[in-house]
Amino acid sequence: MLTEINFDGIIGPTHNYAGLSHGNIASANNAGDVSQPRAAALQGLEKMRANIALGLPQGWFMPLARPDGPWLATLATDEASAEPHLRAQAWSASSMWAANAATVSPAPDTADGKCHLTVANLVTMPHRSHEWPGTLAQLRLAFAHDAFAVHPPVAAPFGDEGAANHMRLTPAHGEAGIEIFVYGVSGGPFPSRQHIEASKAIARAHHLDPARTLFIEQSRTAIAAGAFHNDVVAVANGHVLFTHEAAFEDRGRAHAAIRAAAPWCEIVEVPTKAITMADAIKSYLFNAQLVTLPADAGMGLILPTEAKDTPAVWSWLETMIAGNGPIRRLIPVDVRQSMANGGGPACLRLRVVADPATVDPRFMASNALIDSVAKIVAAQWPEAIAPADLASATLAADVRKARAALLDVLKLGKLL
Fold this sequence. Notes:
Blueprint: E1 3-9, H1 25-29, H2 37-53, E2 58-61, H3 69-74, H4 84-91, E3 102-105, E4 115-119, H5 132-142, E5 148-151, E6 166-169, E7 178-183, H6 196-205, E8 213-217, H7 220-225, E9 234-237, E10 240-244, H8 251-261, E11 266-270, H9 277-283, E12 289-292, E13 299-304, H10 305-308, H11 311-322, E14 327-333, H12 336-339, E15 349-354, H13 367-380, H14 393-409
Parallel strand pairs: 1-2, 4-5, 7-8, 10-11, 13-14
Antiparallel strand pairs: 1-15, 3-4, 6-7, 9-10, 12-13
């Protein structure tokens, strides 16, 4: 039976605040701070546990091998002699944000009836550009069943950052829907990370019906304000699009195209006069998991506690919930360590509509497995990492040992 599975990235032991993500306000503001990898990973695991408690299928992806010595070798350097900015890029734990792992088109949308996944190339950001080989290896292992087709990345220089710039609307997860690719053109001083050429290439590779495929430009003002991905200003689930008024460059045209392709769609729009773009980005209101709750309980919004801490945002949300709209429940979660590096609840997960029985079971989470992983994290993840620590050969050895212990307990040693 087809259902939506959320695959969260386990936050790796090299989680640090190097401020590498140009255009990401939180990343820039916290650059140079001391991170807490252990706390970060435990927060992420508790988020997964909370999803399981809600009755939602939960999967996970493993941290990539870091520091990435082989990548440094391609630059004719190594961990001991690399310049600080290159060393930081080799240490980056940003694969934790699984929304950037791939773009996913479920089987009901594709001509061949397979669930297609294209690994993101992430070429716009150097610290992320070397993630795709490790991510592709996991995707090919997790989705080896014939029900899936896993594709290599779109060729450079066309930037693709995965599901963070892709939305799907459908009457029900197991039914055919429309797929919306949101691309950027410019964002003032910040680069646009999703190129329309990459989005169109993915749509072709996934054998999508052009009549049910939309390409919409993200607001240039939103990118300039720090909405580096579409999922910072809009999120879709089922028949609902939850969006900021200023999410798209041509709002009227975008909404008209969506309504024409999906007349059953319900657009829940937050006006700028109620919540400014600055508050939307500060709170990561839209970087939430909009999920269908079991037992016909409507939809829930799993959002960061920062949304509750932002008065204008929480006031608007409480008013919305008091009405008779499709979003019936607010579920705050503490992912403050991830938020401080610029990623909220939606950044941490990749949605895959599939039959859980077709997924490699090692990539499916349970409370018992979360307990086992939490023990390893508590014992072996560093408590804190300061910028200067990235030069430590001892720490590098420790984090590699910690990741190996994680893969061992989950019987995923092949990923070493």
